[in-house]
Amino acid sequence: MTVRLFGNNVGATHESPANILRTIMDRQLFLDTETTGLEPSEGHRMIEIACVEMINRQLTDHHFHYYLNPNREVEQGAFNVHGLTRDFLQDKPHFENVMEEFLNYVQGAELIIHNAPFDVGFLNHELKLAKARITAIEAYCGVIDTLAMARRKFPGQRNNLDALCKRLEVDNSARTLHGALLDCELLAQVYLAMTGGQKHLFQETFQTDIQVKPQKIRQRTVEGELPVITADEEELSAHADFLKILLENNTECLWASEE
Predict the structure, then answer these.
(1) pTM to 2 decimals?
(2) Would residue 144 count as lying in a domain?
């Protein structure tokens, strides 16, 4: 697990330069959860939460990942999806124990979630149970639902994560079961593919719809001979001094080699 805290969290007294830089950059987090069942209103709980960070469309290794003890059984249907058992989760932390780390981690970011209402519903349920200072994550962070995005982009087609990986040629061969961290990493690749591919910092490509009409080039003729103005002695001396400085600093100088 890789977790670092940053942001203007309650009780913080110092802000590192790296943390300040993150707050002013375009920071997005791909988030996924696994749960004991489908409905938090029926007492189901979150048992895994993961985030993968992307800054200015560049993925980083600054992840957030925890398995969580739900204090209840995992439904068979949910187990068939993710393979997590109550025995495995028994010694894992409760959500309230990692809640502040999570809120500090997501602060100032935009959450990108596939089928966001499901994960947001469970997140808000856990925040309320833990009596968090934030009870609605969508009021704390921006949220993008990639399922809604995919339905607009590919209407009438299957738009679950596996289908999108296949359609957009994202390798999901390691996904035999659902796992929050792996699904976040796959979703990041799917999102980049759906939104135009990965761009490198300071290497943005700009396109325009403006049509430039080609114009005929006209050659200008000059009557008579063009005057040739040569350098005087003072200018030649200054030029020689400049070349000397370049050579003394081991700077390759084409002019000196030609003289």
Answers:
(1) 0.67
(2) yes
